[in-house]
Design brief:
293 residues, mainly beta, globular
């Protein structure tokens, strides 16, 4: 989900333009690489996975397109080139293209065995994606009460293959976010993620130590977007911790969505995010990467 009004988009663009170049040079920020393409489906990026030790990219558009690419990096690990393949247009239910709401894809997770899972927020569902179609997982009971344009925004899979997804909105400022976990053909809805302030979830991933990272964003009409990453430990009783391990000021970056946490060849833990331009010519489409450790 993104702010839809032109006024909000313009405010965010102006705010981001003030500080983006300077902030991208701050310690810990590996780089902000502009993604450019003439293809009509390349935009509105809502999720990302970095593969092949930093050389591969899989991104997801909120208009139902899967985008793959090959990354070239310099000696410091910064992205210097990105070659994109032809986007793959996703189906809605039962093999039909469906309308925009039915193909509002928001979450992306790739398991260790290569299986790819996608979450959607218009027609609330999680699917196992195949080259020629999708297998829709059974719906959790809690999906039925999620808001139409703010549901399954973040999706992650752990080393055991358990899926974790949560909506962008909890329904109230003092209400925690429901966390849905899928394993062995069934959903568990007993866990939550604590809500802190105005920040809303937009991406999630696990690192190689089994820790859960959550990307959240806030929007100010005057100052644009702020982004942060919280880190949780997974226990038998639920998520604990929630320390903020990175945060940008309002206007530091644009509308960051999607999170891929991976370790590079230098042993550094890197968080990669993509900015959703909402298919607007005044917002950037970027791959933003920061070093968490």
């Amino acid at each position: 989900m993104q702010p839809r009004s032109g006024q909000l988009a313009l405010t965010a663009a102006l705010a981001a333009g003030i500080t983006l170049t300077a902030f991208a040079q701050e310690p810990g920020v590996l780089g902000a690489f502009a993604i450019r393409s003439d293809h009509e489906l390349v935009g509105g990026l809502s999720a990302v996975e970095i593969t092949d030790g930093g050389a591969g990219l899989v991104a997801l558009s909120d208009r139902g397109a899967l985008i793959r690419g090959q990354i070239t990096r310099d000696g410091a690990g910064r992205v210097v080139a990105l070659a994109l393949a032809e986007p793959e247009l996703l189906n809605a239910r039962d093999g039909y293209r469906g309308g925009r709401a039915a193909r509002d894809s928001e979450g992306l997770a790739i398991a260790e065995d290569g299986r790819m899972f996608l979450s959607f927020e218009g027609d609330h569902r999680v699917v196992l994606h195949h080259a020629h179609g999708d297998t829709i997982l059974p719906a959790a009971e809690g999906f039925a009460v999620l808001q139409p344009n703010a549901s399954l925004e973040a999706l992650a899979v752990d080393a055991d293959g358990t899926l974790y997804t949560l909506p962008e909105r909890s329904g109230d400022l003092d209400r925690d976010f429901p966390l849905f976990r899928y394993a062995n053909g069934a959903w568990d809805e007993s866990w939550t993620i604590p809500r802190e302030g105005r920040f809303l979830p937009v991406g999630a991933d696990f690192d190689d130590r089994g820790r859960f990272f959550l990307l959240e964003r806030d929007f100010s009409l005057l100052f644009g977007f702020a982004n942060r990453i919280r880190r949780f430990e997974v226990t038998a009783e639920g998520m604990i911790g929630g320390d903020v391990v990175w945060q940008s000021p309002h206007g530091g970056f644009s509308n960051l969505e999607g999170l891929s946490v991976w370790r590079d060849g230098q042993g550094r833990l890197v968080a990669s995010m993509v900015s959703d331009d909402n298919f607007s010519p005044i917002l950037p489409t970027e791959l933003v990467e920061i070093i968490l450790e």
